[in-house]
Design goal:
Layout: H1 49-52, H2 65-74, E1 76-78, E2 83-87, E3 94-99, E4 104-105, E5 114-120, E6 126-132, E7 138-145, E8 153-168, E9 174-179, E10 185-190, E11 200-210, E12 217-224, E13 232-243
Antiparallel strand pairs: 1-2, 2-3, 3-13, 4-7, 5-6, 6-13, 7-12, 8-11, 8-13, 9-10, 9-12
Length: 245
């Protein structure tokens, strides 16, 4: 009978292999190419990272480059919390904070003039800040080795301070100075009377480009002692050295 199977022929099931997995077609009908591992941005260790972390206060997680970067983004204290080192998340450039204990502050160890306060950092760790009680001779100095900075990057050097309310004796502007490894210097004055009270402010000492051919120490200062005016109400957190925004 047309279209009917013979009773002597029973169809047997055919063993079929599962279809091979293929890449899904793209919207235009072309096959989507698998991503090449070479196209993925790979993290690298920041400039002089290993040497800098020799002074770390905590154990560094080197189980993977990703874990290392996460720790560096958050920041690592160095030299018993005298410094802090971190890496910018987007640029991966080195940044540093020199806390007040790492600076030279005239009369800072005389409790008649300065008082050391344990201050809670943003990372929930505590650092020492220097609170001025009363001085007529304000002089703060620091220095830093430029080889630890990312080469070819313009850096800013900023004093991080707070003026309490009340604070007085700031009618005369303070002096700021930055001396570079080649001996050149930048100097200017800053009027603290115009600054907001009760919050951390940044005062620019100067800026420069970190270059491999001009390495050495930079020196930075904030001072005022010629007017002989008694001053009160300044809190010194430290000096930030970071890429110019």
């Amino acid at each position: 009978m047309g279209g009917c199977l013979s009773r002597h022929h029973t169809p047997q099931p055919h063993a079929t292999e599962p279809p091979r997995q293929t890449e899904p077609p793209s919207r235009n009908g072309d096959t989507v190419e698998p991503k090449s591992p070479e196209k993925t941005t790979k993290l690298k260790e920041p400039h002089k990272c290993e040497a800098i972390l020799n002074d770390a206060d905590i154990t560094i997680d080197r189980s993977s480059i990703e874990n290392l970067h996460d720790q560096l983004y958050a920041g690592v204290f160095l030299n018993q919390k005298r410094k802090k080192y971190w890496v910018e998340r987007t640029s991966h450039h080195n940044c540093f904070m020199l806390f007040a204990r790492d600076l030279v502050i005239t009369w800072a160890d005389d409790e008649r003039f300065w008082h050391w306060v344990n201050f809670k950092e943003t990372s929930d760790a505590f650092v020492d800040v220097a609170e001025m009680l009363m001085v007529c001779w304000l002089e703060i100095h620091g220095r830093f080795e430029t080889t630890n900075l990312s080469p070819g990057i313009v850096y800013e050097v900023l004093f991080v301070v707070m003026l309490k309310d009340p604070a007085y004796g700031w009618e005369v502007p303070v002096n700021l100075r930055l001396i570079l490894p080649d001996g050149s210097s930048q100097e200017h004055k800053e009027n603290l009377m115009e600054k907001q009270r009760g919050q951390w402010i940044e005062i620019l000492a100067g800026k420069f480009m970190a270059t491999p051919d001009k390495v050495g120490d930079i020196e930075f200062s904030l001072y005022e002692y010629e007017a002989g005016i008694w001053k009160k109400g300044l809190i010194v957190k430290g000096v930030a050295i970071r890429p110019k925004a």
